[in-house]
């Protein structure tokens, strides 16, 4: 089986307090952190054991994972397994990056988001440049809010040319054609994010070759459809995998709509679907 898995455990704490994020500056208790670590270790053991499958893994924690040693260790460990095609994580890049030297850089990738109000610009850019110099595959992105435009322009000018800068349309924000053109000058693929994509009744790879898994092992087709398909650890999900149409009216998040079969994004991002790096970038 060739399977893409989006894992989101119970971790919800973050060191940033972005006003557009419901988990900003939230603290997990010691017990909650222990539970998250145990859940991640269980998932890691499952992924390591699936030697008959080909797996692509994206960690999408509500909080910031890379400030926790168990996430860094998991990425390194999984990157060296021959049946893991890609292991990637979404991160604000606030933590140290030296650990990437221990990983297989043919497999590891990072999806990095710059939050202008949360971290010194120079610090973030220095980390991206170091990752690029070390050969760590990564994309960098910004939420497309008006107050972020100047920082995004500066970021595009200062990042290495081969580091893709993506712009996420801000939730609930509409863009005039002139505004969209400004963002598209930085991210030529911004048009895919600008508007939610109609998805009801349309074929999607989620639930067939792509699944979402939580800390208990509950399998769903994606993060945005609550119907359960079974459990990862007892194998009950496997019999439920089949071609499916989307039950939602629209899909407005990249980690969801990138899998719609009615969109050409598997070709646009060929080789970089999970880390959001376009083909040939």
From TrEMBL:
InterPro entries: Aldolase_TIM, Radical_SAM_STM4011-like, rSAM_sf. Transmembrane segments: none annotated. This is Radical SAM protein. It comes from Streptomyces spiramenti.
């Amino acid at each position: 089986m060739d399977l893409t898995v989006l894992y989101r455990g119970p971790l919800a704490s973050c060191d940033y307090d972005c006003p557009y994020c419901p988990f900003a500056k939230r603290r997990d208790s010691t017990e909650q952190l222990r539970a998250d670590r145990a859940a991640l270790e269980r998932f890691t053991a499952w992924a390591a054991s699936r030697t008959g499958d080909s797996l692509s893994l994206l960690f999408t924690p509500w909080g910031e994972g890379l400030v926790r040693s168990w996430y860094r260790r998991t990425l390194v460990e999984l990157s060296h397994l021959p049946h893991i095609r890609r292991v990637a994580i979404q991160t604000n890049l606030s933590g140290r990056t030296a650990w990437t030297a221990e990983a297989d850089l043919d497999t590891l990738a990072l999806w990095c988001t710059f939050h202008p109000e949360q971290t010194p610009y120079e610090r973030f850019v220095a980390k991206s440049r170091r990752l690029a110099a070390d050969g760590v595959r990564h994309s960098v992105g910004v939420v497309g809010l008006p107050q972020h435009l100047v920082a995004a322009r500066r970021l595009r000018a200062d990042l290495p040319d081969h580091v893709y800068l993506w712009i996420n349309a801000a939730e609930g924000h509409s863009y005039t054609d002139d505004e969209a053109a400004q963002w598209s000058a930085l991210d030529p693929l911004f048009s895919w994010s600008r508007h939610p994509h109609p998805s009801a009744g349309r074929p999607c790879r989620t639930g067939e070759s792509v699944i979402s898994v939580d800390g208990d092992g509950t399998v769903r087709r994606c993060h945005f459809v609550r119907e359960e398909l079974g459990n990862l650890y007892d194998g009950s999900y496997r019999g439920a995998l089949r071609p499916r149409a989307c039950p939602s009216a629209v899909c407005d998040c990249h980690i969801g709509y990138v899998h719609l079969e009615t969109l050409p994004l598997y070709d646009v991002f060929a080789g970089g679907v999970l880390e959001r790096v376009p083909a040939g970038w």
